[in-house]
Amino acid sequence: MKTIDSIDSLIKGKKAKVYTAAEIKDMVRNGRIPSIDDVDVVTCGTFGIMSGTMAILSFDIAEPGAFAKADSIELNGVPGIPGPCPNENLGIVDCAVYGTSKRDGRYGGGHLFRDMVSGSMIKVDVTSGNKKFARNMTIDDIATARMIVTRGAFRNYTAFLNHDERIYNTIFSVTGMKGPLKEVSVSGCGEINPMQNDISYLREGAPVMVNGGPGVILGPGTRSSVSRPNISASADMKGMDPDMMGGFITSNGPECLTSFAAALPITDEMSLRRIMVLDSEIDLPVAEISTRTAKASASYGNVWEGTSRSITVTAHRCVSCGSCEAQERCPTEALRPAHIDTGRCVACGACASVCPERVFSADLGRIRYDDRAVPITLRQSDRNRAEASCEKLKKMVETGKWGLRCF
Ligand code: SF4
Ligand code: SF4
């Protein structure tokens, strides 16, 4: 009989049989159904927009006695919320910064978090009454930098389309969503998302990788339900990987990219069966953007089966338009005319949808709605990065650097 503790012991002895979710799904697709003795741990991951992400920070900004209590704070121009500890006369500020707070339409909390984790210099401005304090600092100068995700790794998220003639500005589009029924935007990494697999282990106190660093599950996230669960989690920002997080510019302002990975123990036939779920078996509700009501249903097979995982660049097609719309619309600022910075590209497909010369091309798939095949024009989740996080976690489990218990 396998238990979490017996599998944990195998991990400690570097004897656990570990697979990524993608490896298991490939086996299932090829008719090689694994047995309970073949698999001890499966690593799952997801990467995408997760608006419910915030940072809790604490740092020195002035000498003790210089001010009584902070009234306002900005980091690289992104507003935070001072408190709750007043730190009276200590010269210290505690604050929360939301991933969705913004300096302007192109820079917000998600961008700030990535810059912090990259080790970039951050400009901090604090006011207290009529006193102003400013300091440049890196994450090493910040005593506490903890990320809290209030709602992450949502199970079967929703695809959105627009029934109206008018263009609808929304966080689910980078251009404004065109209608009627001209395009669909999708979120979710489908079959490799931990919440699509065996969630019985994903409870309060279980370890989870957040943005490539170690974290812990706090419990169910906001809006979590039995049929569509998600998790909340906490992690030290100082252990994170900047390539596994960031900002994403939408037609309704900057959003926050966050990633999760979890090592799921396979203890019994039920957990084994659950991790064999495939994209085509996972429901993807399709909703009208203005009311958010689901009107139809597709599956993640429409999004991830037989579609392009990356963007093809045919540079010679570029005619050097006056202003490059593909560059302007790229939500991660990964694009220069006819060139993509793969370190920042999340394979969302927006450039392929807007470049008139098809310099960028990708088959993002289609969703059937009212007898129409509506093209997917934007993916707000990156399956490549999610798979990379599964690979990273697999190596950590195989080498005994990641266990199934936090404490
Ligand atoms: S929109 Fe396309 S064709 Fe125009 S400059 Fe950009 S890459 Fe070149
Ligand atoms: S797919 Fe294109 S638009 Fe999307 S992040 Fe990559 S370069 Fe930018």
List the helices and strands and how they pair.
Layout: H1 4-12, E1 18-20, H2 21-29, E2 41-49, E3 53-60, E4 72-75, E5 78-82, E6 92-98, E7 102-104, E8 107-108, H3 109-118, E9 122-128, E10 131-137, E11 144-152, E12 159-161, E13 184-186, E14 207-210, E15 213-220, E16 231-236, E17 246-250, E18 253-265, H4 269-274, E19 283-288, E20 294-299, H5 301-304, E21 312-313, H6 325-329, E22 335-336, E23 339-340, H7 350-354, E24 360-361, E25 366-369, E26 372-379, H8 383-398
This protein binds iron/sulfur cluster (2 copies).
Rounded to an integer, what's the Rg over CA atoms?
22 Å
Q: Work out the number of β strands.
A: 26
Largest sheet, if any?
14 strands, mixed
**Portion in strands:** 25-35%
Task: Summarize this entry quickly.
The protein is an alpha+beta fold and 407 residues long.
What does this entry look like structurally?
- This protein is an alpha+beta fold.
- It has a domain at 53-148.
- Helices cover 16% and strands 34% of the residues.
- The protein has 8 helices and 26 strands.
- The chain has helices at residues 4-12, 21-29, 109-118, 269-274, 301-304, 325-329, 350-354, 383-398; strands spanning 18-20, 41-49, 53-60, 72-75, 78-82, 92-98, 102-104, 107-108, 122-128, 131-137, 144-152, 159-161, 184-186, 207-210, 213-220, 231-236, 246-250, 253-265, 283-288, 294-299, 312-313, 335-336, 339-340, 360-361, 366-369, 372-379.
- The strands form 5 sheets. Strands 1, 2, 3, 4, 5, 6, 9, 10, 11, 14, 15, 16, 17 and 18 form a 14-stranded mixed sheet that branches. A 6-stranded mixed sheet has the order 20-19-12-13-26-25. Strands 7-8 form a two-stranded antiparallel ribbon.
- Strand 1, helix 2 (21-29) and strand 2 (41-49) form a beta-alpha-beta unit.
- The radius of gyration is 22 Å and the shape is globular.
- One iron/sulfur cluster binds next to helix 7.
- One iron/sulfur cluster is lined by residues 318-321, 324-327, 337-338, 355, 357, 359.
